[in-house]
Amino acid sequence: MSVTVRNFEERDAERVARIMFESFKTFLGDRIKEPETPDYWIQCSTRDFAHSVTRSFVAESDGKVIGYLCATANTKNGLGTLNVIGVDPACFAQGCGSALFAAADAFWRGLGMRKIYTCTSHVNLRAQAYYKKMGFVEEGRLKDHFHEGIDEIQLSKFMKKG
Ligand SMILES: CC(C)(COP(=O)(O)OP(=O)(O)OC[C@H]1O[C@@H](n2cnc3c(N)ncnc32)[C@H](O)[C@@H]1OP(=O)(O)O)[C@@H](O)C(=O)NCCC(=O)NCCS
Questions:
Q1: Which of 17, 39, 76, 154 could potentially form a cystine with 51 if both were Cys, beta carbons 3.0 to 4.6 Å apart?
Q2: Predicted local distance difference test score (pLDDT) of residue 162
Q3: pTM of the entire structure?
Q4: 70 near 54, Cβ under 8 Å?
Q5: In this structure, which topology does domain 4-158 adopt according to CATH?
Q6: H or E segment at 35?
């Protein structure tokens, strides 16, 4: 599958809302009831304030949006955050997540980030394998965090210099 990545635009919001709902349902099941609104995704995709810069990317294949990643860079302390990523479940394991990560990686490097943080649910084995492949290691756990009965694994990656 040929995947290209570009910056998120407002016209992507409806499709992104659907992808995020379907992809998160794959590990949260009925805990996730309905999609966030397109406006939610517009608002959280590019929200710069003080030292915090947020950029979002979509992956496309055959002209169709199939994935989304939202990343933040704190230019004061050098900490980048992978806020959220989701791929259309029909396109899992075909390189879309890797292509989105490469775009975020270039964004973080461009702003001189020294460390990247994210977290994932303990039941989400697919994402754990993905983050490990992207170079993240576990730093800690948060009990019953976003949902009762689901712990969050805190993951980080130190950026190599040069
Ligand atoms: C996690 C997710 C973003 C990965 O995206 P993807 O497009 O499937 O990932 P890729 O095809 O680029 O795979 C990259 C690497 O991740 C790992 N990986 C991906 N899926 C895997 C699976 N089912 N089992 C084991 N490893 C897997 C592999 O190491 C893979 O590298 P390889 O192809 O060289 O073996 C996607 O599965 C997803 O959207 N999941 C639901 C939403 C989600 O969990 N988001 C993160 C919540 S914190």
A1: 76
A2: 58
A3: 0.97
A4: yes
A5: Aminopeptidase (3.40.630)
A6: none
In the chain, where the domains are located: 4-158
Ligand 1 probe mutation, 126, 154, 157, most atoms within 8 A of CB? 126
Place of tokens 């992978």: 82
Measured from the Cβ of residue 117, the count of other Cβ atoms closer than 10 Å reads: 18
For residues 119 and 131, give the distance between their C-alpha atoms in angstroms, rounded to a whole number. 9
Ligand 1 centre distance from Cα of residue 9 (Å): 24
Residue nearest to atom 24 of ligand 1 (CA): 126
Kindly give the number of the ligand 1 atom that is closest to the alpha carbon of 120: 48
Looking at ligand 1, which atom is closest to the CA of residue 121? 48
Helices (DSSP H) in 4-147: which residue ranges?
Answer: 13-28, 38-45, 96-110, 125-133
Q: What is the pLDDT of residues 73-117, one digit of tens each?
A: 999 999 999 999 999 999 999 999 999 999 999 999 999 999 999
Per the prediction, the chain carries an average pLDDT of: 96
Distance 25 CA to ligand 1 centre (A): 15
Burial class (CB in 10 A: 0-12, 13-18, 19+), 38: middle
